[in-house]
Amino acid sequence: KFTGYFTPVLKVSKVADEVYKYPIYTRPKDWAGPLPTRKQIDGHKVLAGKGLELAYAKSLVDIYYMQVQGSGIVEYQDGTRQLFAHNGSNKQSYRSIGGYLARKGYLPASKASIRGIKNYFKRHPERLEEVLYSNDSYVFFAPSKSQPIGAGMVPLVEQFSIAVDPKFIPLGSCLLARVPVIEKDKVIRHEYNVLLAQDIGGAIKGPGHVDLYTGIGSRAQRQ
């Protein structure tokens, strides 16, 4: 099974205002007990005012998808950019919001792409919190001067780096695979390619699932 992931570019502000009001957090260092769930962080605001805010985004959905991808490039209002790298999680199990939407009958599974889910929330903003909070998992970030790197601590290379379940495919493995070739949002054929296991992901489980890194920005997202 092939899935794909990418590095999103997210417009942010260094300070909160009426437009940029949703905080992006770094990991709390001295938290006693289990780290809070997504609902506790975004709904109950248990981390607010503790000096953990890195920047502010326009949308919880955009932050959510940066968390799913594991890292992101933020673009400040003056045009400067910075990588926000993965800085750990709250150790809660990942649950797909696309799967939740399908189970509830809100959105067919065939429409549960990033674009499809974002369009659904535009039509049904009243269900945003219900759906997002169905996934307790929460990812924290840290500013970085490097380019996107994986769990193997080396830079990710589009179309070559993959995320794997290291219980079955060790990090550093070199694989030969028949990789889907995408044109106009469709798989038109497969081509053999060498892939490098350089990353892991909370949703990547089992021996038959790899997650192909497609690059940075909107083109990579579409693929």
Shape: globular
* Fraction of residues in H or I helices: 10-25%
- Neighbour order of strands in the largest sheet: 3-4-2-5-6-7
Write down the Rg: 18 Å
Approximate strand percentage: 25-35%
Measured distance between first and last alpha carbons? 16 Å
Number of helices: 6
Structure description:
With 223 residues, the protein is of the alpha/beta class. The strands form 2 sheets. Strands 3-4-2-5-6-7 form a 6-stranded mixed beta sheet, with helices on one face. Strands 1-11-8-10-9 form a 5-stranded mixed beta sheet. Strand 5 and strand 6 form a beta hairpin. It is globular, with a radius of gyration of 18 Å. The two termini are 16 Å apart. The relative contact order is 0.20.
Short summary:
The protein has 6 helices and 11 strands. With 223 residues, the chain is α/β, with parallel strands linked by helices. The chain has helices at 38-43, 60-69, 97-103, 114-123, 128-132, 218-222; strands at residues 2-7, 9-13, 22-25, 53-57, 72-75, 81-89, 139-144, 161-163, 174-183, 186-199, 210-216.
